[in-house]
Amino acid sequence: MSKRDYIVSSAHLADPGTEELSEFEYGLILAHHAFERWLVRCMTAAGYPDLSRVDILVLHSVHHRGRPKRLADLCFVLNIEDSHVVNYALRKLAQLDLVARARPGKEVFYATTPTGDDACRRYREVRQACLLAVPTPPTDHAGLGETAGLLRALSGLYDQAARAATSL
Q1: Domain-embedded: residue 134
Q2: What b/e sequence results for 103-134 when a residue is b if at least 16 CB atoms lie within 10 Å of its CB, and e otherwise?
Q3: Whether the Cβ atoms of residue 39 and residue 57 lie closer than 8 Å to each other
């Protein structure tokens, strides 16, 4: 059996036996940046070139299931600690008439406007035309659900490690 060659971008972190973790992290970094680039380019093609990746994620989270959302819930769902980042995105989206805020009681809720609904629909159309229409391995997208579950589990692992590092 021959030794496997690893693509380890951070060889200084990879002790013998941990090369696969470093290789996975490198792949995650590449996928993360590619996904962020995709978000912005897809929304630009949908007709909204001035939105950042956070703006786009917030817009889609507000639009999700057609129910108004609170700032705290959006931060929680997006796993963003700094509520000012999400609040800034909400203000920007409101200025563009993509979301509207309402205060039915003591709390503020955000919902997409008809313009925001249309932006999400157009994003979906571009996504369908550019991302989902091209066969990619695996061609039937088998295993993507399991991979998504693994990534969610790993996000918990990295969050726990971040908490541990904070207390050092």
Answers
A1: no
A2: eeeeeebbbbbeebeebbebbeebbeeeeeee
A3: yes
The answer to whether the CB of 118 falls within 8 A of the CB of 99 is no
Closest Cα to residue 93, out of 36, 50, 42? 50
Q: Rounded CA gap, 9 and 118, in Å?
A: 41
Taking the chain, what is the end-to-end CA distance rounded to the nearest angstrom? 41
**Domain presence at residue 157:** no
Q: What is the CA radius of gyration of the chain?
A: 19
**Is the distance from CB of 35 to CB of 27 less than 8 angstroms?**
no
Sign of CA dihedral 105, 111, 115, 117: negative
pLDDT along the chain (168 residues), means of 10: 59 73 81 91 95 98 96 96 97 98 93 98 92 64 75 82 78
Q: Angle CA(30)–CA(40)–CA(59) in degrees, nearest 5?
A: 115
Identify whether 115 is part of a domain: yes
- The residue behind tokens 């990619």 is 136
Domain limits at 55? 50-124
